[in-house]
Amino acid sequence: MASQPKTLADFGDFTKMFADMKLPAVPDMEAFVAASRRNIETLTAANKVALEGAQAVARRHMEIVQQSMSEMTEALRSLSAVESPQAKAARHAELLKAAYEHAVANMKEIGDLIQNANAEAVHLLNARFAEAMDEVKALAEKSAKS
């Protein structure tokens, strides 16, 4: 069985390996660093928007659960007050219809919250991507002139 390399030196001379590579020169390192900083800032802002959206969804979900529990308690109370089986069945149908309509409205609201947060985050990323492409183009033109 072959022995495993124990040190970095066992892999060979990295400086020679990288010296042989023809890596393009960065014409303006400060511009490159500034662009990278803006990329990270934009990514951070997009993540913040996504996190705030997730928090808004979680808060609204908790509100919906609390509201649903309250409505269910009231529905059971009102259903138990009805005496005749026919009236009870009619009231039950009304309650089911109302519960279904609330559920659909709540799902739409949650979906809208998620969609809005995602759209805002994607807008930030798309805007930065367009700026980055303009910066790359400007750097390439500057490099071609040098």
Tell me what the structure shows.
About 85% of the residues lie in helices and about 0% in strands. The protein is built from 3 helices and no strands. Helix 2 runs antiparallel to helix 3. By secondary structure, it is mainly α. It has a domain at about 50-145. The chain is rod-shaped, with a radius of gyration of 31 Å. It has helices at about 15-20, 30-80, 85-145.
Keywords:
146 residues, mainly alpha, 0% strand, Phasin, Phasin_subfam-1
Question: Quick recap of the structure?
Answer:
This is Phasin. The protein is mainly alpha-helical and 146 residues long.
Largest sheet: none
Order of helical and strand elements: HHH
Mean pLDDT: 86
**Count of helical segments?**
3
Radius of gyration: 31 Å
Helix fraction, binned, reads over 70%
Q: Care to count the β-strands?
A: 0
- Quick one: overall form? rod-shaped
Distance between the termini: 54 Å
- In percent terms, what proportion of residues is strand? under 5%
Class computed from helices, strands and strand pairing: mainly alpha
Low-pLDDT sequence parts:
none
Domain Phasin: 30-129
Protein name: Phasin
